[in-house]
Design a protein that fits this description.
Length: 99
């Protein structure tokens, strides 16, 4: 599935929705539904995210996130965070933040 997109100052965006790419899934713990997300842009609790992949396509609100088992209110680009997922995700799924 190929989505129309454009780039604004190095930030990947989907054109049909007001979203920016913020990272990708590097690991998924299926028993506890937690994904490791490698961030390329900031993310905060309360943000709406969209997860897309070959078999993945859903939206959820970030209720909590962790680094080293400690809850954090926000994370910056370059950090890897643990994120509770609403549905099953796969490695290399792309995560977008709704603006």
């Amino acid at each position: 599935m190929r989505l129309p997109h454009y780039t604004i100052i190095g930030v990947f965006c989907l054109s049909e929705e007001n979203v920016i790419e913020i990272g990708h899934i590097t690991h998924f713990f299926s028993k506890i539904n937690v994904a490791v997300l490698e961030l390329t842009a900031p993310l905060a609790v309360g943000d709406r995210i969209l997860v897309k992949g070959p078999t993945t396509d859903f939206e959820q609100t970030v209720d909590s996130m962790q680094i080293e088992h400690a809850n954090i209110p926000q994370a910056e680009a370059g950090q890897s965070i643990g994120l509770k997922m609403a549905e099953h995700v796969k490695e290399r799924d792309v995560v977008y933040k709704k603006l």
